[in-house]
Design brief:
homodimer; alpha/beta; N-terminal domain of TfIIb; three-stranded antiparallel beta sheet; 7 helices; 12 strands; 23% strand
């Protein structure tokens, strides 16, 4: 039986330094992370940004895997020097590790950290059946909450979407450029659970939970802004670090410098995620809103996942 | 009686965004921060870096106030285009707000935030009597711990040293580029305590504590490194966020990826500060070591402080 081939990307954002360090240490100590028989290809997503300690050079690599963007950059009318470096990097990663590449992988795991109090969590993009099966196995094993990101025209071109199956692991809170024992441990645990899931599913011995609990993306909220466009409030003390905790209409959301409160005015029960993520300020996102849903496990998911793994 | 003239610098490091935001809000709401009668000049230390969201452009502004560096840059043989932008900014700040400047201030407060768990704290550079008097009044009022930085040949050229009297306020933990309610509140409280101290001292109504408790800088520790020079350990879970907590020989200090512990081997009772500050990685500082000392209040300090305030 062939091994599942898993691409593990760390440092897709160059200032998220825990996962890259974990992979570096792993190279020197092969028993640091149990692969459960998977053939793993570790790679630094954005090595130039990682060397500089910044999130990216020209544009966010994890928004650069847009088919239109990649096609345009690959056309002959665009000499490489005029292509954003992250778009070129996306093309290079796909051509080596994507379908038909010399090191083709059927599954990709994209490792991130966040300044938000997300804990150890999974991000699934869209509803591809194989992704949902993989997420269900990891959730069944570790209980991680899942943020299902979909249908947001402002946020497109995520790395994992360019592989047949994959998900992101998001761990926080941790400042950018800070190595932290808890983040390292949580990243390793989630990664091992992914490897075990792939291995078990390929061997037909995977034990799926009865349902998948997802937090489905509905949209994002920006900070209140003054007429000049600059933020004139901050996350309310009761909302700061309260990721995954449902809100009710009227709950405190933001606070102004004078102490006045800006309440949450959305529907009851929605669940905020990525509260006060440093890098999302430039995207005008103070938090994202999700709807918690329990989806019964589907045979279609598990079949798709096993088929994908069997395909190599 | 003239008012104490206080220069308040925020954003000396462009990615420390809480203090700049506080000053921006203050401009719109003059009663947000009580000045206690001081004439306050608020300024963004490094506006270009602040606009870009990075610590600095060419070099750390808060290491650029070295007399030799400033002299060299100011000489005719150095055209401005060849001078580091932060050195030029240091010259500009001194020429406007320093002695003899059009907006000369006798006291400077430099506002910083840190990823370390420093809480609300003061940093004093050297043992200038007026600085010690000001620090004593703020410590007496708010109980803030004081890091006394001195005699470190590797770390020179701090902003406050270019004014006759001044100190830095360091608040954490907070990630770079994240606005946080607690950091905003603590910064405001420390700032108001400084203004009150200046006002009271000038009016001769200051009530000093009997002693000043300082944590005197002894040196810094780097992370353990592999032969290739890259860090091969991280802060031990027991040491992470344990700023201001004394250590004993043999206490866990760092941890390696395989879980093994690197113990602290220094003298008993030394107190670590700036543990795991993101920006100090480039300076090869994992933490600094200090010696806690109680100094009886000195008449020389209070006289120097009052004389400085009276001089305008």
């Amino acid at each position: 039986m062939p091994s599942p081939r898993v691409l593990v990307v760390a440092g897709t954002h160059g200032n998220e330094i825990n996962a890259p360090w974990l992979l570096e240490q792993w190279q020197q100590q092969p028993d640091l992370i149990q692969t459960h028989g998977c053939e793993v290809h570790p790679v630094i997503g954005n090595p130039e940004a990682y060397a500089k300690g910044c999130r990216y050079l020209d544009r966010d690599l994890n928004r650069s895997f847009q088919p239109g963007l990649l096609r345009q950059a690959g056309s002959e009318r665009n000499p490489p020097s005029q292509v954003d470096r992250e778009v070129q990097r996306a093309i290079d990663l796909i051509s080596r590790y994507g379908i038909g590449g010399i090191d083709a992988c059927g599954v990709v795991i994209d490792l991130h950290s966040t300044t938000s109090s997300m804990g150890n969590s999974l991000v699934v993009h869209g509803r591809r059946p194989a992704d949902l099966a993989l997420a269900a196995l990891v959730q069944g094993r570790l209980g991680l909450p899942i943020y299902l990101h979909e249908a947001d025209p402002d946020q497109q071109g995520f790395l994992v979407e360019s592989w047949p199956c994959g998900l992101a692991i998001e761990v926080g809170p941790v400042p950018q450029m800070v190595r932290h024992h808890k983040i390292l441990t949580q990243t390793r645990l989630a990664l091992e659970a992914v490897f075990e899931a792939c291995s078990d599913a390929l061997a037909g011995r995977a034990r799926y939970p009865n349902q998948l609990v997802v937090h489905r993306h509905l949209g994002s909220l920006d900070l209140p802004r003054s007429p000049s466009g600059s933020p004139d409030a901050f996350l309310h003390p009761q909302r700061q670090a309260a990721d995954w905790q449902p809100m009710r209409g009227g709950d405190p959301l933001f606070q102004k410098a004078d102490g006045s409160c800006v309440p949450y005015e959305g529907a009851d029960g929605l669940v905020p995620v990525f509260i006060n993520e440093a890098a999302y300020a430039e995207k005008a996102i103070a938090l994202s809103l999700t709807h918690r849903e329990c989806w019964p496990l589907s045979y279609e998911w598990t079949e798709a996942f096993q088929a994908q793994l069997s395909a190599g």
